[in-house]
């Protein structure tokens, strides 16, 4: 039974994500159902909310809480790195080398439909590091150099991907199938230009808007993965190896200006510096749940040591076309 049925209080501290302490001794999913409006209102107001103190016994409990918080859990479309699937709509965190930073990004910002809400839960916190960073995408847009944002607003951005057998997400991981006809059909229907290579690999190119308008609150936001999926964000040794092995055009992923020009290392550095200046961090504790407005707020993951068991869900899909992208969607 709950100790109190009153509306939980949300703690706001500078440099910290909004925090709600769940004080109860019942079923976490019941608590989430009872407090769903409070949780969703807080995310709409602040762009993010950390819920601490839920007694999450395992993936099933997490799934129940996620389903209570979200309208719809969705599949992970076109992932660039694999996740473990725990159940329908319930995934591990993206598999990424623990000693490498995952830079700021909005989940699947390169797809035509992306999650409006991201849900994260911690079952085991790492020994050290592993914080999730959060950055307000409207503040980032305001802080970036005007000439840089103007060009991306006018042109949009391009994501290029090459699917090899050896590295990065496989065709089956990215598209749910390795059947050529099915993959080709997916690309045609999702505004992805594609070309099968003589060695059997696939190269794709998708052109998207870099600045969107939030479909609910109307804020203009820097919404893309120009920095994170750039060759200049890769570990230099990894990049050098990949360029040597596959050629500059054959990297597993890279980003370009909307007109196809390369994005310089200096631009990517500025993007990551502005993100860093606007980052608040969630130092995970076991049983924490984090709700993130995926359009309003970018997220990242810091390097860590030791086991780190995180679950994630993509929820409440939003259509790119409903966010007034400043550059046209095209292949
Ligand atoms: Fe992510």
From TrEMBL:
Its cofactor is Fe(2+). The keyword Phosphoprotein does not apply. InterPro entries: AlphaKG_dependent_hydroxylases, TauD-like_sf, TauD/TfdA-like. One of its GO terms (molecular function) is dioxygenase activity. Residues 20-312 form the TauD/TfdA-like domain. One of its GO terms (biological process) is antibiotic biosynthetic process. The keyword Iron applies. Keywords: Antibiotic biosynthesis, Dioxygenase, Iron, Oxidoreductase. This is TauD/TfdA family dioxygenase.
